[in-house]
Amino acid sequence: MEFLRTPDECFASLPGYDFSPNYLQVDDCEGGQLRVHYLDEGPADADPVLLLHGEPSWSFLYRKMIPVLTAAGQRVIAPDLVGFGRSDKPSQRGDYTYQRHVDWMQSLLDQLQLNNITLVCQDWGGLIGLRLVADNPERFARAVAANTMLPSGDQNLGEAFIKWRTFSQEVAQFPVAAIIDGSTTTELSADVLRAYDAPFPEESYKEGARQFPLLVPGTPEDPAAEPNRAAWKVLSQWQRPFLTAFSDSDPITAGGDALLQKRIPGCRGQAHTTIENGGHFLQEDQGEKLAQVVVAFIRANPR
Predict the structure, then answer these.
(1) What is the tens place of the pLDDT at every residue in 166-208?
(2) What's the fold here for domain 3-300?
């Protein structure tokens, strides 16, 4: 598989992102390997909190949350999905599939030997992360879903998502930082916007970002529809603690929290919350608040 690797200098002097990079190799599914970047912060012997980002962000999105979580004694693992951040970026759109994204993150779990995991997932982080929970229910101690869902192709994706998908395919230059900026409630500084653009020095680096909207299953015949239905069968019986922490200003995922609470038994009795003054990327708008919610959730649900 051919891929691009963003030069290290693109990541110099990013605001609030003074974390040491870590790397591992995953099978590219074609006989080669891809390099995956991840952050590993906090006590090495603590139970891990797995932070999974979505589209078109990267682990920089979690920079406000990581210090709060590590101060509470948690180990934090924050990978960059393949095609994003400091991870390698396959250069052909067809190299990106839903199943491959799940497999690549499964490899990370296996290589790092992660257990007793608290999942925190948003956007595509949930589409991948909830599949991981269903595939490894014994390895996850609890989960937090923030502005995300696990679509199976059996429901309408909604007008807001359809408009986003159309835009993502028709726009001449994929405006990563502008997409983040337009999906937050706060005004982002020039340095922060530069950080979101940092992984993509040229348009050729954005094939993964371009492809993600097309991978969301929107019909019952979609390749990911049946695997996601199978995942729902597991999640609909999952008794371990599950919390929804959606924001109040996200048209893409609005209402998804109620559906998760209805279908996942582990949601019962949890202190589900709506985080105010947060857009789709609530980690950017209210990162510290979301991290505090996660810490309280972990403490209220000890192993």
Answers:
(1) 999 999 999 999 999 999 999 999 999 999 999 999 999 999 9
(2) Rossmann fold (3.40.50)
In the chain, where the domains are located: 3-300
Residue 47 annotated to the active site: no
Buried b (16+ CB within 10 A) or exposed e, 182-196: ebbbeebeeebeebb
Indicate which residue of 103, 257, 280, 285 is catalytic.
280
Residue-averaged pLDDT of the chain: 97
pLDDT digits (tens, 9 = 90+) for 202-240: 999 999 999 999 999 999 999 999 999 999 999 999 999
Q: 250 catalytic, yes or no?
A: yes
User: Would residue 272 show up in a list of annotated catalytic residues for this protein?
Assistant: no
Distance CA 260, CA 251 (A): 17
Residue from 250, 257, 272, 285 carrying the catalytic annotation = 250
